Amino acid sequence: MPAIDLSTIDLRAIKPSDLDWRKFTLDTGHPMRRIFIWSVAVNMGIGQSGERLEKAAKVMSELTGRTPSYRLAHKSIKDFGIRRGEPIGLLVTLRRNEAVWFLLRALAAVDFTLREESFNAGNVSFGIREHILVPGSRYDPALGIFGFDVAVTLARPGFRVQYRRRARADVGKDHRVSREETIRFFQDVLGVRILKR
């Protein structure tokens, strides 16, 4: 049973404050074993700086409600006209209510259908070809159409130990989220259909 009945809500009008990210968890019987959405990263690779990148930044901030950070080129590629250190992409990381809010809208853009190959241990990635497919977004001829990638990371309570500054430690193998659990989370909690290979 999905955590939210999508037939009763309008994804074009929903706001992050209307959602509670704690409801979007997969209960596995023990409070420390429950699985939840850790983060949703939205990435746009533009491949060039300048006006097109600024337009993409405007589109991304409208989509996510956050100011994107600029991603820089790691090396110079003369054929593409890219210099090292030049901004060529955008990234926004969303957490908690904003993450669930954006993920529901992004999944609606792909009809709540994902390929089995998109899943690995605790992570899911998928792309959207045109940002206007996302409910609530609008087409602006002055900006154009951009595609983007969505990367979702799932976690369990206690995962913070691998990111904290003091007394950092690895998460045990048995406590990590497996690929099967990731697929089950998306099917049971978000109501996603999985396309087999």
Secondary-structure map with pairings?
Blueprint: E1 25-26, E2 35-45, H1 51-64, E3 69-72, E4 87-94, H2 96-109, E5 113-115, E6 119-120, E7 123-128, E8 148-155, H3 179-188, E9 193-195
Parallel strand pairs: 5-9
Antiparallel strand pairs: 1-2, 2-4, 2-8, 3-4, 6-7, 7-8
Question: What does this protein look like?
Answer:
The protein is an alpha+beta fold. Helix content is 19%, strand content 24%. It has one domain: Ribosomal protein L5 (50s Ribosomal Protein L5, Chain: A, 2-Layer Sandwich). It is built from three helices and nine strands; from the N terminus they run ββαββαββββαβ. The chain starts with 24 loop residues before the first strand and ends with a strand. The mean pLDDT is 84. It holds the Pfam family Ribosomal_L5.
Brief summary:
With 197 residues, the protein is α+β, with helices and mostly antiparallel strands.
Indicate the proportion of strand residues: 15-25%
Please bin the fraction of helical residues: 10-25%
Specify the overall morphology: globular
Give the mean pLDDT.
84
Radius of gyration: 18 Å
Instruction: Please count the helical segments.
Output: 3
**Estimated structural class:** alpha+beta
CATH architecture: 2-Layer Sandwich
Annotation, overall tally of beta strands: 9
Distance between the termini: 24 Å
For the biggest sheet, the summary is: 7 strands, antiparallel
Series of H and E elements: EEHEEHEEEEHE
Query: And the CATH topology?
Result: 50s Ribosomal Protein L5, Chain: A
Spans of at least 5 consecutive residues with low confidence? none
Family: Belongs to the universal ribosomal protein uL5 family.
InterPro entries: Ribosomal_uL5, Ribosomal_uL5_arc, Ribosomal_uL5_C, Ribosomal_uL5_dom_sf, Ribosomal_uL5_N
Keywords: Ribonucleoprotein, Ribosomal protein, RNA-binding, rRNA-binding, tRNA-binding
Pfam families: Ribosomal_L5, Ribosomal_L5_C
